[in-house]
Amino acid sequence: MSELTIWLAGKPITGVRDKLHRYCGLAWSGGRPEAWAFRFYDLCPDSEPNRLWATNLLVCSVLHPSITRANLRAYAENIAEMERVLNEELPLKTDLANCGGSELETLFNLLDLADEGMDLELLTKVLHKKRPRLIPLYTKHLHSRYGNVVATNGEAAWPELVFEFKKDLEMKQNRQALLKMQEEIAEDFYGDPISELRIADIALFMETRETSHCPV
Questions:
Q1: Coil, helix or strand for 12?
Q2: What pTM does this model have?
Q3: Which of 83, 127, 138, 179 is spaced 20 to 30 Å from 110 by Cα?
Q4: Domain ranges of the chain
């Protein structure tokens, strides 16, 4: 089976199938199945897409191991507003690649929900589980990849990162590769557990993991 390539920030990520299979704990061309965060974060059951509970924060610990008391406080204080945004502004079945201007503006404005207690990285990890097709994960590997095509640094770059990532997900070549992987992987998990957005994110993480300090 031929390998697949996607392009992010103008640079290729090759071997997407193997990267995804490794992260998902499936057989791949280089060895035995491996254990990463997929089974403990992506596959963790979440039957209420518009509600937030304590477990929605706790499941993020596999990606964000340094959850502090300040994070717990900020999460509790912001649950109502996060649920409002999910209910009123971010449709469940909308993809980042084809979302409209209002949804994109809401994604940009997630920066306003972030503070010292609920930083943007943790916030997006919580909300991505609710909207895995629409909300990117704000991570070091995403920022590093797009660092040369955005004009700002730190969390302030979030709107630009979302916009640039969206453009790449819209590319015909990328959509074909990601849809192919989505269809293949669904057969392994009896459904459709991975969005195009998350597949691209996983491929990027696995590409950079050896030189970064990102969590699993």
A1: strand
A2: 0.93
A3: 179
A4: 6-211
